[in-house]
Write a structure and sequence with these properties.
Number of domains: 2
Strand order of the largest sheet: 3-2-1-4-5-6
Helix content: 25-40%
Number of helices: 10
Strand content: 25-35%
Order of helices and strands: EHEHEHEHEHEHEHHEEHEEEEEH
């Protein structure tokens, strides 16, 4: 079967894990180039052992190859802000795994089929991929006035790129909670936990809504969990969904939002990685590479179908 050629820019943990995922399970994508800007490193060495072409000329090597149709950006937010216009001019599709927030937000379980017509797929953040589906699930039943997510990851799974982009993480995720999750107001918090042994990614989602059946909300949440599990098997509820009526006697003040009351829904999640390259506790990185791959594979399948139609 003919495959669409892709490049991965960034031979770090995310890029290398993505390389292994594509080689292991993609029906429609072939990695034609694995690129970085520094010689050495485990990622480039592994790629060469696998027979994958590599380069240390970074984005320039990718732009010079007209056969490459998809570029997975696994660098940092600033790099993608610079590279995105170059990809667009070269007619290449960008899959952005940084929190640069270029282009419309894409979370496969929510809007993959309606958001693959552009040239830059914005994969939000790891915390966004894990938690926004839950906000959207509640919003499908009843409008969400406020949503707050707390993403807790092992400090060992937070590389230089993650640490350098903490501000972008909170800003991008907060906006996506509103735009894609449907919340009137959104807030995102990330915690790097130094515990030993390292903890699996944990996420807590709080929503405040008006009305809505608790049974319907819980059912919608379970259906959304099942949708995410199709491409991230280690994604699961940590415990039963919790509900609480707040502000019955007096509204509660939420900073930046004001006085609020309604039904509070608490959703606790755990994300275990597939351990293709990264440790199983690095679910934060696994959910990003998995979401990026399923989105790119879906787009590539449509291109292959068009070519043979």
């Amino acid at each position: 079967m003919k495959k669409v050629k892709a490049a991965i820019l960034g031979p770090g943990n995310i890029g290398t894990d993505l390389l292994l995922k594509i080689r292991k399970g993609s029906r429609n994508i072939e990695v034609a180039l694995f690129a970085g800007i520094v010689e050495g490193g485990r990622g480039l060495e592994l790629a060469r052992k696998m027979g994958v072409p590599t380069s240390t000329k970074g984005v320039e090597a990718i732009l010079a190859d007209d056969s490459i149709k998809i570029v997975f950006e696994a660098t940092g937010a600033r790099a993608h802000l610079e590279n995105a216009p170059k990809y667009r001019k070269a007619g290449k599709i960008a899959i952005d795994l940084t929190p640069a927030a270029v282009g419309p937000y894409l979370v496969p379980a929510i809007n993959m089929d309606t958001n693959l017509d552009g040239d830059n797929f914005n994969m939000v953040t790891c915390g966004g991929q894990a938690t926004i589906p839950m906000v959207a699930a509640v919003n499908q039943v009843t409008p969400v006035d406020y949503a707050e997510i707390v993403a807790t990851i092992s400090s060992k799974s937070a590389g230089p790129g993650t640490r350098a982009n903490i501000d972008e993480f909170t800003e991008t995720t907060s906006k996506a909670i509103e735009i894609l999750g449907g919340a009137e107001h959104g807030k995102a918090i990330i915690i790097l936990n130094p515990a030993e042994p390292p903890l699996i990614m944990r996420d807590t989602v709080f929503t405040l809504s008006q009305g809505g059946s608790r049974e319907d909300i819980e059912q919608s949440i379970h259906e959304m969990v099942a949708a995410v599990q199709k491409y991230v098997p280690g994604y699961r509820l940590k415990q039963k969904v919790q509900f609480e009526n707040i502000g019955d006697n007096a509204p509660v003040r939420i900073p930046g939002v004001g006085l609020c009351s309604g039904l509070k829904t608490t959703i606790m999640l755990e994300v275990e990685g597939a351990a293709h390259y990264l440790p199983a506790y690095a679910g934060n990185l696994d959910i990003m590479t998995s979401a990026a791959l399923v989105s790119a594979d879906h787009w590539a399948a449509k291109q292959v179908t068009k070519e043979f139609a």
